[in-house]
Model the fold of this input.
Amino acid sequence: MDDSGFCDLKEICDWKLEMMARRIFSGLWGNKKDILNKVSSLYQVGVFMEYREAETVKDRVTEQLVKLDEKLKKLTRMRLEDEITRESYFEFKSEIEKEKLDLLSKRRVLDAGMVPNGNPEDPAKKAEDFLLVKMNFTDHRIDRDVIGQFVGTIVPVTETCFN
Done:
């Protein structure tokens, strides 16, 4: 009988896996409250940086819109003074208006991203609450999903030693 593709290691009980996970994560965690505070502050810094970047892009879009308005005014002035033909005027005008519509839709997207979603709860508070739920520090248990994200495999070396 071909035994390739089958694992010949002994099955590990859940309590042993739990013990291994506690040992692994005890070295990783350190002071849990400090880690939560650090994660929360990093999240807030990230949100602030995204907000600043969005504001910068929005300012650039606004500047481009002002320039397009000026172009349109100059184009209209040129048409009024018969410097360009009517066909050229409408061709250039349609190009400018198309660019303007693209920029306006881009600005709407930026505005929508920065408008509060009506939820009074702070996003940093949400992240902290999520971590507190997944990492119940009172009874020293860690959610299995979180363990699965950090630990791919546990290989027993001896009866009490695992990699």
Summary: The chain is about 70% helix and 0% strand. Residues 14-150 form one domain. Strands lie at 135-136, 141-142.
